[in-house]
Design a protein that fits this description.
392 residues; two-stranded antiparallel sheet; 2 strands; mainly alpha; 16 helices
Length: 392
C-alpha cells in the first residue's frame, strides 16, 4: 500500500480501486484480528491518529452547511478516511511489533527505489528539477526522500561507526535527490535533520572513547567534507535550487502571499466553522490550495476545527521537546525533535491533511510521542510490554 501511494501513483498514475480496496482490506484485516483475539486494543493507537477520523466527521457535518460543493467535499473526505485507516493500521501493527522498525525499513526501501528510478529514468518537472515522472510534484518526491532520511537516521545505532557509514550513504543519496528535485522547503527541512543526525552521531561515537572507532570516524569524515566542499563550490552553486534559494521575488512566493490573504478572507466570512474541508479552491476562485497547513486549516475548518486539528499536533511537539530536554539530549530524542520541528516548518508550505507523506510522518511522531507518555507516566509493565523497544 505504501509503495502504491509513494511510488506507483507518482510514476504511473492514480488507481483508486487499489487505494480504496487496500484501505478496505486493511480495515477488514484489523477487525478480523480483533475478533480472533477477542479483544480490541484500541488504546495502543495514539489519540492523534484517531483525531483524523474526528476531523473527517467534523468535515462532513459542518460541510453540509458551509461547503461550496458538498459532493466534492464527500469525495475528499473518503480519501481522508482511507488515509486515516492506513495510519491506524500502521500504529496498530507497530504496537503489536513493539516498535516501528518494520516501517522504517519499508520507508527506506521505497525511498531507495524512488531515488534509483529518478536518477536513472526520471524526468524534468516544469522547470523545477528531476522527479519520477511528468506528474510527480517535486515536493511530493522530496517528501518521500525526507521520510527515508529520518528512517535511516533514526534506526541507526549510536556509537556504531560502521552502521553510521551505511546509513550515512543512504542519507546522502536521499539528500542529493532532494537537491535534484529543486524543492527548497524540503532542502531546508532535510538539511536540518541531516545536520542534527551528523552532529549527534559523530559526538556519540567520539564520546565512546574507543580509539578504533575514532580513527574510522575521522577517516570517514575527511573525504565526505572534502567532496561536500567541492560539490558546493563547483556544482551546487550553479544548480537550479541554489538560484531559487536566492530569488526572493520568485513568483511562487508572491502567489502564496495572495493565497494566504484569500484564506484570511474566507475565515472572516465564516470564522467558527470555516468554508468546508477542501473548499478553499472554490471559495477563493483559484481552483488550487492555500499551500500552507495553517492558512488552509483556518479557511477550511474555521476556529473550532483548527483547534480540534492542531491540539494533538502541538501537544505531541511539546511532549517531544520536553523529553529531549529531560533526556539530556539523548540521540533518538534529539532526532525525533528535529523531525517534529521540520514537519511543523513544512506546514508553512505544505498541507498536512492532504498529503499522505505527512499522514505517515505524523503517525510516526504521534506513536513515538505516545511511547514517551508511557515512560513519563510510569505505565504498568503489562502496558510497557507492548512497546518492547521504547525510543526515545
Amino acid at each position: 500500500m505504501l509503495f502504491y501511494v509513494f511510488m506507483y501513483v507518482e510514476t504511473w498514475g492514480d488507481n483508486y480501486i487499489i487505494l480504496y480496496g487496500a484501505s478496505l482490506i486493511t480495515g477488514c484485516s484489523l477487525v478480523g484480528h480483533w475478533i480472533s483475539e477477542q479483544q480490541i486494543d484500541l488504546k495502543f493507537v495514539p489519540y492523534g491518529i484517531w483525531n483524523n477520523l474526528v476531523m473527517v466527521a467534523y468535515s462532513v457535518i459542518t460541510g453540509f452547511f458551509a461547503a461550496y460543493m458538498y459532493s466534492e467535499l464527500i469525495d475528499s473526505c473518503i480519501t481522508y478516511a482511507a488515509f486515516s485507516v492506513i495510519c491506524i493500521a500502521v500504529c496498530y501493527v507497530s504496537a503489536e511489533e513493539g516498535s516501528m522498525e518494520w516501517l522504517y525499513k519499508v520507508l527506506i526501501a521505497i525511498a531507495l527505489a524512488c531515488a534509483i528510478y529518478m536518477l536513472t529514468r526520471g524526468t524534468e518537472w516544469g522547470g523545477y528539477g528531476r522527479t519520477l515522472s511528468s506528474h510527480n510534484n517535486p515536493h511530493v518526491f522530496a517528501a518521500v526522500m525526507n521520510l527515508g532520511i529520518f528512517s535511516a537516521a533514526y534506526r541507526c545505532k549510536k556509537h556504531d561507526t560502521k552502521e553510521a557509514i551505511v546509513s550515512g550513504a543512504m542519507i546522502l543519496l536521499f539528500f542529493f535527490c532532494i537537491i535534484e528535485s529543486g524543492s527548497r522547503k524540503y532542502l531546508i527541512a532535510s538539511a536540518f535533520i541531516v545536520g542534527i543526525w551528523g552532529i549527534t552521531q559523530s559526538t556519540s561515537i567520539w564520546r565512546k572513547n574507543d580509539t578504533n572507532q575514532r580513527i574510522l570516524l575521522v577517516i570517514t569524515l575527511i573525504p565526505i567534507i572534502g567532496l561536500g566542499a567541492y560539490y558546493i563550490q563547483n556544482m551546487f552553486s550553479s544548480s537550479l535550487i541554489y538560484s531559487r534559494l536566492q530569488d526572493n521575488n520568485d513568483a511562487g512566493n508572491v502567489n502564496r502571499i495572495v493565497l494566504y490573504q484569500k484564506a484570511i478572507e474566507i475565515f472572516k466570512n465564516n470564522p467558527l466553522f470555516g468554508g468546508g474541508y477542501d473548499q478553499f479552491k472554490f471559495w477563493s476562485g483559484t481552483r488550487g490550495y492555500a499551500h500552507s497547513t495553517y492558512a488552509e486549516a483556518i479557511a477550511d475548518y474555521g476556529f473550532v476545527g483548527s483547534v480540534l486539528y492542531f491540539i494533538p499536533l502541538f501537544y505531541a511537539a511539546i511532549r517531544i521537546i520536553r523529553n529531549a530536554i529531560n533526556s539530556n539530549r539523548e540521540y533518538h530524542s534529539v532526532l525525533l525533535l528535529a523531525f517534529c520541528l521540520s514537519e511543523l516548518f513544512l506546514g508553512v508550505g505544505q498541507i498536512f491533511y492532504m498529503e499522505f507523506c505527512h499522514f505517515i510522518a505524523w503517525s510516526i511522531i504521534f506513536f513515538l510521542s505516545a511511547q514517551i507518555g508511557l515512560k513519563e507516566k510510569k505505565a504498568p509493565d503489562q502496558l510497557k510490554q507492548k512497546y518492547r523497544y521504547i525510543r526515545p
